[in-house]
Automatic annotation (TrEMBL):
<dbReference type="InterPro" id="IPR027379">
    <property type="entry name" value="CLS_N"/>
</dbReference>
<feature type="domain" description="Cardiolipin synthase N-terminal">
    <location>
        <begin position="2"/>
        <end position="41"/>
    </location>
</feature>
<feature type="transmembrane region" description="Helical">
    <location>
        <begin position="18"/>
        <end position="39"/>
    </location>
</feature>
<protein>
    <submittedName>
        <fullName>PLD nuclease N-terminal domain-containing protein</fullName>
    </submittedName>
</protein>
<keyword id="KW-0812">Transmembrane</keyword>
<keyword id="KW-0472">Membrane</keyword>
<keyword id="KW-1133">Transmembrane helix</keyword>
<keyword id="KW-1003">Cell membrane</keyword>
<dbReference type="Pfam" id="PF13396">
    <property type="entry name" value="PLDc_N"/>
</dbReference>
Length: 44
């Protein structure tokens, strides 16, 4: 979870709203970070 939060703060370009991904990561302790790395990160 910490790695996902650091990544989203450093790289604020996401698929979907930035705040939504932070909420998903924090509230979905196990599945939230996994979902972020699969669907949320915007590939450069």
């Amino acid at each position: 979870m910490v790695v996902a939060l650091v990544d989203i703060i450093r790289n604020q370009r996401t698929n979907g709203p930035f705040i939504m991904w932070i909420i998903i990561i924090v509230l979905g302790n196990l599945i939230g970070p996994i979902l972020y790395f699969i669907f949320g990160r915007r590939q450069s």
